[in-house]
Amino acid sequence: MKKIFLVEDSSTIKEDFVMILSKFGFTIVDSLNCDDCILELRSSYKKGEWPALVIVDVDMPRIDGFRFVDELRRFDKYTPVIFMTRESEGPEESEFIQTGAIGWINKSLDEDSAKRMVRKYIGY
Which domains are present in the chain? Predict the structure, then answer.
């Protein structure tokens, strides 16, 4: 089963994403902060398990989404990363492309938006 790693510090939003994305057959590995997600990813890679996608909140305590992607790219250049934001408009395209992320989504995710996101970014 394909895995999506989710980094979100709001338990309500995290639960919504897990519920919706699980409906598409993904295993969701969720973390409340970027440090924990980096550890989870490293552990997963050591087992030979590569995620299909990483979704990270831009505005996180201690390490924000941009710094998280920078750290991730030190040991994983290929896994697609999407930023998550509350803003009606996401980060400037140049901002997320420079980090190696492939796009952004709004935190108010519904099933149709999730389906489009999964198809667009990982073709599943």
Answer: 3-122 (3.40.50.2300)
- Output the six-digit token pair for 22: 């699980």
**Closest to 69 measured CA to CA, from 7, 114, 9, 2:** 7
Q: What pTM value is reported for the model? A: 0.90
Instruction: Give CA–CA dist 122/67, Å, rounded.
Output: 23
CB of 87 closer than 8 Å to CB of 56: no
pLDDT at 96: 66
Which residues face 104 on adjacent strands?
Answer: 83
Q: How far apart are CA 32 and CA 17, in angstroms?
A: 13
* Distance, CA of 67 to CA of 12 (rounded, Å): 24
The SS3 of residue 27 is strand
